[in-house]
Amino acid sequence: MAVRLGFIGTGGMAGAHMKNLQTFDDVEFTAMCDIVEGKAAERAKKYGGTPYTDFSEMFDKEELDAVYICTPPFAHGEQERIACENGIPMFIEKPIAVRLEQAIIINDYVQRSGVITSVGYHWRYGGDAQKAKEILSGEKILGALGYWMGGMPGVHWWRVRAESGGQHVEQTTHIFDICRYLVGSDAKTVHGVAARGSMTDIPDYDVDDISMVNIEFKNGAVANIASACAMEGFGRVHLEVFCRGLVIQIGGGSTVNRKGQTEELKGQGFDRDRVFIDAVKKGDSKKILSPYSDALETFKITMAASKSFETGKAVDL
Ligand SMILES: NC(=O)c1ccc[n+]([C@@H]2O[C@H](COP(=O)([O-])OP(=O)(O)OC[C@H]3O[C@@H](n4cnc5c(N)ncnc54)[C@H](O)[C@@H]3O)[C@@H](O)[C@H]2O)c1
Hints:
The chain is of the alpha/beta class. The chain folds into 2 domains: 140 residues, Rossmann fold (3-Layer(aba) Sandwich); 163 residues, Dihydrodipicolinate Reductase, domain 2 (2-Layer Sandwich), CATH 3.30.360. 35% of the residues lie in helices and 26% in strands. A 9-stranded mixed sheet has the order 14-13-12-11-7-10-9-8-15, covered by helices on one side. It has a 6-stranded parallel sheet with strand order 3-2-1-4-5-6, sandwiched between helices. Helix 4 packs parallel to helix 5 and helix 6 packs parallel to helix 9. The protein binds nicotinamide-adenine-dinucleotide (NAD). Nicotinamide-adenine-dinucleotide (NAD) binds next to helix 1.
């Protein structure tokens, strides 16, 4: 039987999931919800389903087997609560929120309801990341350097701190997350610095132009992760992991360097939509690499960084 899907937020990222999911023969687009009526209607026309502008109405009227929540970071909360109350599995785009208290409350709903969740940390599912995880399993990891340095995304909410949380929360979160995944530990202490002042001509812009975050992990590994959105025509987006005689790079042409010999890093990857749909069908979340509770740990690091930017002090987690 087809998995009946509802979408909440039908913008750019939702479109990427829909394009992928339409190639599956076991899903049905049942409902498309966006506060902008025309966007929901356009997706419904292209992929099927009934358009809505209010997700409460959508939940009331439709029989759904799962929802994709692809709203901007500031617009989380109520849709997750209703999905949990109705026992509906959720694929949720990262970042899971912009406020820590809210993410903790949602995590409580998720844990109490037992619904299957998957958060859009797709780097984890890459063949390179899977191979890296395998190689690193027998190594002592010393540390990591990560970067997301490039230009500013076009969606308006991205440049507004209260709506996106800033670049480290919204975008570089992928690097923080893959770093946690490969280091295999949660953070103990976070300290960060940030600067701005070069983007003052951009209306409503109040996020940092650049930031750098130091992390000390519970297993003793250390990391520095940099974000910058003021570069134009430049992109440095990757993570390097360092062990004795071994350097692994994920992103930007993934490689493994053993004592000076560099090879391409290749392994068997997975499609995160396929993994989610299979989990929903089987009622088994084992293969999901980023459930809500795990994504919360990544979110805590970026929220601690925000606090450290403001106070100048290290934050213990
Ligand atoms: N995993 C990835 O690599 C990746 C890439 C891009 C974006 N994202 C994430 O996906 C999310 C969405 O980003 P996007 O680029 O699609 O943004 P977008 O602005 O293109 O789309 C968001 C949509 O949500 C709608 N919306 C806002 N509030 C709503 C509400 N209460 N109910 C229903 N619809 C609502 C907006 O009208 C808009 O159409 C963000 O959290 C972003 O970080 C993830």
